[in-house]
Amino acid sequence: xxxxxxxxxxxxxxxxxxxxxxxxxxxxxxxxxxxxxxxxxxxxxxxxxxxxxxxxxxxxxxxxxxx
Length: 67
Fold this sequence. Notes:
This protein has helices at about 10-30, 35-55. By secondary structure, the chain is mainly α. The radius of gyration is 26 Å and the shape is elongated.
């Protein structure tokens, strides 16, 4: 029934380090891209948005439902 003794100060520091590392990894993925990659992503997003808008039905303001 012997429990491992844990130094809470060291535990907190280790947890803070791991949290900072997770944030750094996320930042590398988000901001560590070349200009070409950013342009490609924005172009793909615009293309997907246009394709989505093409399938959108427009509502008529007329009460009869005619154009």
